[in-house]
Amino acid sequence: MQNIARDDVPRTRFLGTVFDQIDMDGALRLAQAAMRDRRRLQHSDVNVAKIVQMKDDPDLRRYVAASDLVCVDGMGVVWGAGLLGVPVAGRVTGVDLMMRTLDLCAREGFRPFFFGARQSVLEDMLARLAESHPTLAVAGIRNGYFTPEEEPGIVEEIRASGADCLFVGITSPIKERFLHDHRDALGVPFQIGVGGAFDVVSGNVPRAPALVQRIGMEWLFRVLQEPRRLFRRYLTTNSRYAGLLLAEMLRRLAGAGDRNRDDRNGQGSRS
């Protein structure tokens, strides 16, 4: 499947990875065009946890960089990019892009496939979507528990469904690897990894209030829900991210100092 043209969306490098200068409306327009024209748009995203993870996992970094579209998901990335003077067109969270895409599917007859999470979560999510999106026609569902031997069969099941969009609710780096390895064989125009979005949409995991989302404290909301499991993880991840930002700021300051010395030396030699 040929990928969709997106030449007008500039790509930016940031802390060893990349993201595209696109906001929610722009990402949704590309998704709509991909589904309408049956051309591939394989989406990935970056947040603080994934940037830190990519430092230890070059394969994950490669999967993200090879994606057709890479959006900024976390407010931590927005803030960090701002500190370094790197522009960000907008934040595009996976769960919000998923819901906006499902709105589009319900209106225009596109059919989604949901792959990931536990079977009970999928069933809860479908029940809630039947209430909120009664005209939505679902191409298929498949839970996220599988062996390597089962993977080719899952790819064929998704392809045979004729789905217009695929939501993969599996953790990193499994979802990135799956989409990278099979994005053409899947035969699905719009493909997006959404992590734990199924748990949120199903109602099994509460999402942070809108104000908490806007101020970038969703991670703290999650820690307060499960402090024993998440406190150490977020502390380690956020500390490493702060270290990466500081190192980059110091590198840029050192580079600016070297350029200033070169300029002064050059002026002196011309005197």
Query: Treating each run of at least 4 consecutive H or I residues as one helix, how many helices?
Result: 12
> What's the pLDDT, averaged over the residues?
92
Strand content: 5-15%
- Radius of gyration (Å): 21 Å
Write the element-wise H/E pattern from the N-terminal end onward. Answer: EEHEHHEHHEHEHEHEHHHH
Structural class: alpha/beta
Strand order of the largest sheet: 4-3-8-7-5-6
In total, how many beta strands? 8
Q: What is the helical fraction, as a range of percent?
A: 55-70%
Largest sheet: 6 strands, parallel
The shape, in one word, is globular
Low-confidence stretches: none
Distance between the termini: 62 Å
Number of structural units classed as domains = 1
Keywords:
271 residues; alpha/beta; 6-stranded parallel beta sheet; two-stranded antiparallel sheet; 12 helices; 8 strands; 56% helix
Report on this structure.
This protein has 271 residues and is α/β, with parallel strands linked by helices. It has one domain. The protein contains twelve helices and eight strands. The chain has helices at 24-37, 48-56, 58-65, 75-83, 94-108, 119-132, 151-161, 174-182, 197-201, 210-214, 218-225, 227-270; strands spanning 11-14, 17-20, 41-46, 69-72, 112-116, 140-142, 165-169, 190-193. The strands form two sheets. The protein has a six-stranded parallel β-sheet with strand order 4-3-8-7-5-6, sandwiched between helices. A two-stranded antiparallel sheet has the order 1-2. Helix 1 (24-37) packs across helix 5, helix 2 (48-56) packs across helix 12 (227-270) and helix 3 (58-65) packs across helix 8 (174-182). The chain is globular and about 70 Å long. The termini are far apart. 35% of the residues are buried. The model has no long low-confidence stretch (mean pLDDT 92).
